[in-house]
Amino acid sequence: MIRVNHPRDGLVTISLDRPDKANALTEPMLDDLAQAFDAAGDARAVILTGTGRVFSAGADLDAARAGLALSPAWERLSGAIAAAPCLTIAALNGTAAGGAMGMVLACDLRVAVPEARFFYPVMALGFLPQPSDPPRLAALVGPSRARMILMAGQRIDAAEALSWGLVDRLAGAEVLMDTAEALAAAALGAAPGHVAAIKARMG
Question: 41-78: string of b/e by CB count within 10 Å (b at 16+)?
Answer without folding.
Answer: eebbbbbbbbbbebbbbbbbeebbeeebbebebbbebb
